[in-house]
Specification:
The structure holds 2 protein chains of 2 kinds.
Chain A lengths: L5 H9 L3 H22 L4 H15 L7 H23 L21 H4 L6 H9 L3 H11 L5 H8 L3 H21 L5
Helix pairs in contact in A: 1-2, 2-3, 2-4, 2-6, 2-7, 3-4, 7-9, 8-9
Chain B lengths: L16 H9 L12 H10 L11 H51 L5 H11 L7 H5 L22 H17 L11 H10 L5 H7 L10 H5 L4 H6 L6 H20 L24 H10 L2
Classes of the chains: A mainly alpha, B mainly alpha.
Chain lengths: 184, 296
């Protein structure tokens, strides 16, 4: 998150400043990749690249604050993910199907998470074990740094539904970790 | 208010909403928060961790793409600005040149031109001769095609050079008719000359500029005198034409670039430096530089 410098950085990038755009990219790309590694497994880098191509193309016309910027970025990534899923006929075709909630999460190696500071990669694998919508909403809240209302607009749900989904995901995460004997 | 966690899971235990809200907002858990939320907090902290190396790996490719787009945007803005002027100038130039050629040709092919004019038309575009061909060659009016460097001698009928050559020949005819210039306004062929000169009264000055062959033409003056371009530019619309020509080239190129580029959507190598955008104002050289930069 860039904060107070964001408007100036955005304006400079829109004027063609490579340095300014570089800062925007460095700030957002890690979050983008983390989101995509869960929602578009195996295609995260490709989708991220496509997302940036599209963002660069529309950059001059973008208007908004940092929250809107990140919302635009992740909305673009989400659409690219859905396109990618259609292309590959993969599970991302219906990334928001909460009916999958009944499925058991994939096994997570307890050893990976039983360390005091788990790696980002291990955390993402844990998230991937959640039902897709729960994982996505948590990622958009925590990794993308979007507020509930923005996430709601992004995934086309009500803010209330987003809140419930996120909390449900966290509880399930606690259950998974507890079941695997992970305590800190 | 306690809420059951995880539908039907045996670990279900009350987890306060406020703790979940705090976790999502990145806030610290309270000392009395459920212990089973601590690992969750760790997971979320790992999700927010500082970037790892590979997460910033593609920067150069993205920046290269950014440079390309910045270049395209500049050219697009520029060509958008110029397009209307360019279009109008081009249309006007085309229409005027076409009219001039049609007028001349009609007059010539219907053998309706004054004698000297008809001879010129015959020579330039193969219209019916006013007399015999030999007499045309031997005409007192020196025909420019006999001197390769003469304006209009090289151009095929209807081409800019041909039309321009015809204008210079019209000038010759105009001079030969000068005694009774009243006929000038009635001849379709002379309409072209009038239009090109900007009025009957401006014909002498116009003809003087394009170095008509009415004067004894040594080998040098036709070369030396205003070359084909300036008279051609004056031909249709003296005001707008200069713009139309120079901008036509630039606008056309930028169009091609901006349309072709997205197809090569990959991340091209970054060539050259990031500067030079500002120099792209010119007309010839910068375009080729952009073409090179935008090449996949």
């Amino acid at each position: 998150v860039i904060g107070a410098d964001f408007p100036a950085l955005l304006a400079a990038a829109q004027q063609g400043s490579e340095a300014a755009f570089s800062q925007l990219w460095r700030d957002a790309n890690p979050a983008l990749l983390r989101y995509l590694r869960v929602t578009a497994p195996g295609a995260a880098e490709d989708v991220a690249a496509e997302t940036w191509v599209q963002v660069i193309r529309g950059l001059a016309r973008f208007r908004g604050d940092e929250q809107a910027w990140r919302a635009w970025l992740f909305t673009t990534a989400r659409r690219r993910t859905i396109d990618e899923g259609r292309r590959r006929s993969r599970r991302q075709e219906a990334p928001l199907d909460e009916e999958n909630a009944g499925q058991l999460p994939a096994a997570v190696d307890t050893a990976d998470v039983a360390i005091e500071r788990i790696s980002t990669q291990a955390a993402l694998e844990l998230l991937a074990a959640l039902p897709p919508l729960q994982a996505e909403v948590i990622l958009l809240r925590v990794v993308a740094g979007l507020d509930t209302e923005t996430v709601a607009a992004l995934v086309d749900r009500s803010p209330g539904a987003v809140r419930v989904t996120a909390h449900r995901g966290l509880r399930r995460l606690a259950d998974i970790l507890t079941r695997r004997g992970v305590t800190l | 208010m306690p809420i059951c966690a995880g539908r039907g899971q045996e670990e279900s235990a009350p987890v306060p909403e406020i703790d979940l809200t705090a976790l999502l907002a990145g806030a610290e858990l309270l000392p009395d928060s459920p212990a089973r939320l601590r690992p969750v907090a760790e997971v979320l902290a790992a999700l927010r961790a500082e970037p790892a190396g590979d997460e910033l790996a593609g920067e150069q490719a993205v920046l290269s793409r950014f440079r390309q787009q910045a270049g395209v945007s500049v050219l697009q803005r520029r060509s958008r600005r110029r397009r209307p002027v360019m279009l109008i100038a081009t249309l006007a130039a085309t229409a005027a040149a076409t009219l001039a050629v049609i007028g001349l040709s009609l007059g010539a092919y219907t053998d309706g031109l004054p004698g000297p004019m008809q001879r010129i038309a015959h020579d330039a575009i193969g219209a019916p001769a006013a007399g015999t061909e030999q007499s045309v060659r031997a005409s007192p009016i020196p025909v420019p095609s006999s001197t390769p460097a003469g304006p209009g001698g090289a151009g095929p009928p209807g081409s800019p050079r041909g039309a321009m050559g015809m204008l210079s020949q019209l000038c010759a005819s105009y001079e030969s008719l000068h005694g009774h210039a009243g006929g000038v306004g009635r001849s379709a062929a002379f309409h072209a000359l009038i239009a090109a000169a900007g009025g009957v009264g401006k014909i002498p000055a116009f003809c003087a500029r394009i170095s008509h062959p009415g004067a004894p033409p040594p080998a040098v003056p036709p070369r030396h005198a205003p070359p084909p371009h300036p008279p051609h530019k004056k031909e249709p619309h003296p005001n707008a034409n200069g713009n139309g020509d120079s901008q036509g080239g630039g606008g056309g190129n930028s169009q091609g670039n901006s349309q072709g580029n997205p197809l090569g959507a990959g991340n091209g190598n970054s060539q050259g430096n990031g500067k030079g955008n500002e120099n792209a104002q010119g007309h010839g050289v910068p375009d080729s530089r952009w073409v090179r930069r935008l090449a996949p």
